[in-house]
Amino acid sequence: MNLKISYDCLKEYLPTKKSVFEVAKELSLKGMSVERINEVGQGLDGVVVGQVLSTEKHQNADKLSIAKIDIGKKTPLQIVFGQMAKIKVGDRLPVAIAPTTLPTGQKITKSNLRGVESEGMLCLDSELGISNQDRVTFFDEKVLPGTPVAKAMGLADFILDVEITSNRPDAMSVVGLAREAAAALGIKSNWQEPRPNLKITNKLPLSVEVKEPKMCSRYLGVVMTDVKVGPSPLWLQMRLLQSGLRPINNLVDITNYVLLEYGRPLHVFDYEKISGSKIIVRKAKAGEKILALDGKTYELKSHHLVIADAKVPVAIGGIMGGEESAAVENTKTIVFEAAIFDPVLIRKTVRELNLRSDSSDLFEKGLHPHSAMIGILRAIELTQQLAGGKVAGEIFDSNKKEYKPKKIKFDTAIIKKHLDIQIPLAQIKNILQSLGFSVSGTKVLTVTVPWWRAGDVVYDYDLTEEVARIYGYHNLPTHLPEGQIPIQVKNPIFAWENVAKNVLVGLGFSECYNYSMVSEKFLAKAGFATKDLIKIANPLNEDMTVMRNTLIAGILQNVADNFNNFSDFKIFELSNIYLAKGEKELPNEVLKLTGAVYTGNQKSFFAAKGVVELLLKKLAIKNYEFRPTDPKCPLWQEKAALDIYAGNKYLGQFGLLKQSLAGNFGISNSVALFDFDFSFLAELASTVKTFQPLPEFPSVVRDLAVVIDKKTSWQRLSQLLEKADVLIEEVEYLSTFTHASLGTDKMSVAFRLTFRRSDRTLKSEEVDEIIKRLVVKLEKDFGAKLR
User: Fold this and answer.
1) Is residue 197 part of a domain?
2) Are residues 441 and 337 in the same domain?
3) Looking at residue 85, what is its pLDDT?
4) Taken in order 243, 246, 247, 252, is the CA torsion positive or negative?
5) CA distance 638 to 634
């Protein structure tokens, strides 16, 4: 959470003469980090307050007007302006006198607009760089024409952008930050609880019923009458603008200022719009709707909490008020609301309605019940000062239990144990008291936690942290670590992961990262059974209900997302899948390597086969073999898939995906997949490399073609050829030929044999003799005949 806050506003509760930079430094070292400091009021030397003397339409432009502006000099300024606002005679507003440059970088020069000279510009707040609002600030009669705008607006200030940790909603306010800054500076904040005049005049009826005390643990409401709705004073508008809040009217601005000043969300209702003068805190009725202050209508569910009158909802509890009950210009009587809502309820409602507000941000963090009374008292005080309001009834309180502060036993000896430093007892007490804690005792202190810290200070080590940060972490002693540095135990599987990834990326593959959480329907699309899946107890959405038991479904979705944009591509994923072991056992995580080769035609199979062979070669896995995949496997096209084994150990498989399964993902062309159990690959992989000297003598190459049975695999044929003679250095497949002349069950396989001796040059006769023996062996084992 970040808070933008005026330094002048902070100093109201921080009695110090230190500069903003000194305060920011101490606050960052000992509390909340000040991320940046923005100086406002700079670059406005050429902008003054001007009073409109006259206006008239531009004769040559329908959308332009001409104004005479008094800027405190004898000769008025002539300015041509557009439809920026409803400007009338007597208005006092910011005027930029040409030539000048505004803080936004906009240059103002004298210009001729459709034949009329313009000597400056009427300025919006956004053009002055004081907010992002396209609005005009109007000044009252006390501000004389010609007064510099920076002085009139009180802009000689600094805006601190402070990061507030999420466990400290109490510091998400001017008062809370002033407490922190005071403790960091070693002084005391001068904040006091508000004490408005609660004398009741002209009592008006209001009944409040809290039907859901678990959802709303405390609800306060008070009626005020004789209020005069209008613009807020300039100081209040500027403080809201500098913190990123938009001024609306004095009543709404008061609730926003209490939010900024105290970190306390409030809401104001028009009393006359509360049907039956009754407020009910209840669950919404299914299908009930409310028009919220953001102008949108929200349909509510039966578990949402609403603030309702006798007929309809007037606010979504803790999030946003309703448009139809809002305080407007003619409002005379109001109801202020301050409440405490369940943080979990607020988070769920915000998410379901996709509706977030400054109030919900604070309620989500959890606010203390006492803050509700403090907030409503401050709202009453400001309304009496700024809108002339009078209290018209007692403050209703649904939970009047007296706050009993928590007390913690704090043995100061743990300071030395935890921080390795002896801090004097008096200094420990001063630090805790500066933070608002009450302290008594000597060695073992009794520390009373203030209400605003009840949420995050619970144990004695929390107090140790408070002492440490205010004492200054930078003041704690530093020691180099001692002892023997532990030897890092390397997991070899990580190294093999890198090898595999580098091989695949070198082949043009792209790596994918998919969610481990999927839906049952998603897995079923890829042909996988959905029983025995690991179900997620609290899924994020309906597409993340189970843990995946395969990577294939995700890879196919990646193919579906890309095949319309690329004619061919290759992708892979190396991640865990999750297989159920038992009801009370953790799942079995299996590391899988799955990839897809998409060429748009049947060549995908051979491309995938080449990838598999190269990968196994780079991992130095030898003596593997391809076996026909079980035809009952639902993934593959008939006779277009192979299993990979090393001995009797199954490593994985590859093949062409069935077109029906590809169609489930909208893939129209053939796609080849490979799927490895990577833990087995890593187990068999080897770093041992055998180096051989370069050959000294030339090789002899012979091409042969034999006619064999169609059922004979090249793998079996090549294995026989490689083992047939020690002089055979390499066996290379060339082609396969089929023809009616060979027979329906026969085929011709062509291959190339490379022969070499290491001690001398081979003679042609020696090679011929080897080939004769080889042909005999092929005929004996496979019934092969030489073509």
Assistant:
1) no
2) no
3) 61
4) negative
5) 10
